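#onboarding

Welcome to the new folks! Below is a worked example of what a typical request in this channel looks like: someone posts a single protein sequence, and someone else replies with the predicted structure as tokens. Don't worry about understanding the tokens yet, we'll cover that in week two.

Example request:
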Amino acid sequence: MTLRSLSLLVSLALCTPLAAHAVEFTPQELARASALQKTLLTLDSHLDTPANFHRAGFDIQQRHDHNALSQVDYPRMVEGALDGGFWAIYTDQGDRSEAAHVHDRDAGLLRLMDIREMLAAHPDTFQLALTAADAARIKAAGKRVVYISMENASPLVDDPSLLSFYHLAGLRLLSTVHFANNEFADSATDKKGAEWKGLSPAGKALVDEAVRLGIVIDQSHASDAVFDDLLERMPVPFVLSHSSAKAIYNHPRNLDDARLKQLAKAGGVIQVNAYGGYLIDTGKTEARAQAEDALMKQLGGDYDGMTIAQGVALKQGLDALDQRYPLRKATLDDFLAHFEHILKVVGPEHAGIGLDWDGGGGLADLPDVSQLPKITAWLLRKGYSEKQIAGIWGGNLLRVMAQAQAHADKLATPKK
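Example response:
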């Protein structure tokens, strides 16, 4: 089992069943929130849903409720008023051998093809977005918005010039690294520690090329030293597509208050995450870990190769483990603790939503995208204006994207 697959399994276990002391809303609050959200451009900055596009039995036009593998599909997007967002090209980190670099290159291209094939198969419901202005136009046409992002730049190690091809194919958001260090940058979670003390020389060159093309840089999963390098190096703001607050839970994937303030000062945006293991200490035991491993082996041992039908069996198996080896479940309250803290530190103009759907995100009482209006209900309860809520649900992120694209256009314009 890969590190990514193990991490996903842990997070799936944290999404169900419902934990105690969860925030509650009246039917009137939820109705008001849902009505408002349908008028707003609602985007999530980190959707791992393309990981499901190759699964046997998965159809994005059909509901896949009560399935450990699926949190996003068209019917639930409609119910939760999610207009779309950034759909990730994710590649698991290999051993960094020459063969692994070739594998990563090909895996990235195949995931890109998965996204483009989904778009071609469903032109009436999904549409590719390339500019910051495209999202509103696509929503007005009654379709869902698909921006393409890349989580982990390892597919580019074998041939960094592929970045230009990805850009032509629609890539608009790029993160340098994932769970482990790679040739471009240090990860926040590599147990070996820092290798480059931030960005490597190749990573700096990659970031510079992304800036030239107008691709937004995503700092999530990278080390604090990478954050510092980006802050010093970049002439335009960057984002964190799915990260939370270190002051609330001291995890290396989360950002401290000093850097949150630096991000806001530089015009950047943090999209708050709902990955349970980054929100709370779950109190997981070794016995639970072994039971999860046994469950995976019983289901074939290959998370990425599971069918959508096996996702139902996986959920049932995890529910049974909850009775034998209970874990503390991350709830909407836990997410809102991070969200509220970040809003207070950076202000509503520099915060957004990136819940890590289909990549380990979700909460006991927010298990899929159908229930997104709960977040809007909380924002209304806290007194945020409709303009501020619109910024949080996509406007702030698109503002950074527009700045990145305007800077690239300026660089491309010949000097007189």
